[in-house]
Structures are given as C-alpha cells and as structure tokens.
Automatic annotation (TrEMBL):
Source organism (scientific name): Massilimicrobiota timonensis
A Pfam family that the UniProt record links to this protein: Abhydrolase_1
Keywords: Hydrolase, Membrane, Transmembrane, Transmembrane helix
AB hydrolase-1 domain: residues covered: 14-109
Name used for this protein in its record: Alpha/beta hydrolase
Transmembrane segments: 119-137
Single biological process term from Gene Ontology: glycerolipid catabolic process
The keyword Hydrolase appears for this protein: yes
Amino acid sequence: MKDIYYQISGEGFPIVFLHGNGEDHHIFDQAVLQLSKQYQCICIDSRYHGQSIHAGELSYQQMAKDVMGVVDELKLEAYDIIGFSDGAIIALLLAQCDLRLKHVVSIGANTKPCYIKSFYRLTFYLQMLCLAVFALYQKKARLTLKLYRLMLTQPQIEYQQLHQIRIPVLILAGEFDMIKEYDTKQIAKALPYGIQKIIKHGNHFLLRDSFLETMKEICLFLDACHQEESHENMSGTPINNR
C-alpha cells in the first residue's frame, strides 16, 4: 500500500507491530532486534503517523482497515500482532474480523476513553487547550490536537464484543498504567482465550521502561502459541475453531 508505510525485518511466521498515539514504528526497534531472529517482523506506521499518509479518516476502524490492506498486499495467510496502546486497540478490532490473525499481544489497551485514569485525561484536555492557539498556524500542533481528540473520543468497544475473539490474546499492562485496572481485568475476562499479566512496577510504556520483563512475557506467550500450533499440525488437529 503506497499510503501506509511499513518495513520488514527477519524471516519466519509474520508478526505485525502496531505503535501507539503520536509514535511510529521505531518504538519497536529494540523488540524487533530480538524477535526478528525467529519471526518476520512487519512494522507499520499508522495513518497520520510517521511516514504513512496524513489524510483520510482518523479512526481506529480505518487504521484496522489499513493493516488489513498491508496484510492483503503481502499475501499473508496468517499473522500475529504485537500492539501497544492505540496499536493494541486496533489489534482487538482486527481480532474480531480478520480470520488470518492467529495470536495477539495487547500492551496497554483500553475499551473506552473513560477508562484512561482521570489524571491523564485531565492532562490531555489541558494540553489540547494549550494546543488550540498554536493549531491556528502550526501544522504539527493541528495534528497533535487531532490525535488527542481521537484518544479522548475512541474507542467504544463493549466487553461482549470481545467474546467473539476465539484466538489467544496476551493482555499486558503495567502496575501503574494510565489505563484503569478494572478495564484491563474486564478485557481479559471477556476474552475466551485471554491471559492477563501485570508487570510489577511497570507504567504504560512497558517496552521502554520495563523492557526485559515485558519481552520475557511476550516471548513465552509466542513460543507457547507456536509450539502448540506445530504440535497440532503434526497431529492433524485443527489449529483453532474459528
């Protein structure tokens, strides 16, 4: 897709990496350095981020469609996702509709803006107020304002929607995450094959500030999923029931 930028590293089972609000694919550089030894790592810049197009609809649903477009272009029959924050939200949306998606690592997802802790929401609103003046004449400020607005109005995912996700999902969050613990627990509870792990002393930015422990959990999850698939393929048992 010419509108959506992505880069590929390594060989093996494909993993799509989806970053958070206001970031780009480089937040995964250290993780990709490790995982590309075993997997094909496909790092995408979401719409309105990085080197991807800064035009069109700004929504998590559109970003999910963009990811599916990249998967179509690469002709992937199966893939996993590691998503952080906004990227984790997009992963949960894709898990509801794309049968090619087999496993998800969700880092710091939320189902609704109200589950961002009040302190952080207030901070974002105050920053939007400050940006409003600069947005009159500064392109970067206008973009940041749009991205904050996205985060404070979307997503609107109901827990019952997550019941239809019939694949393994690792739900990661920090002990001191900006997402309310209630939402993290309810996401894991709603998922038929959800596994919740809370990183002790961790914040929202687990791959930055709790890298080793976070990567340990990710690698354990991916290894278990793919070892089980290999065993089931050898035994002739269907991989999943979707």
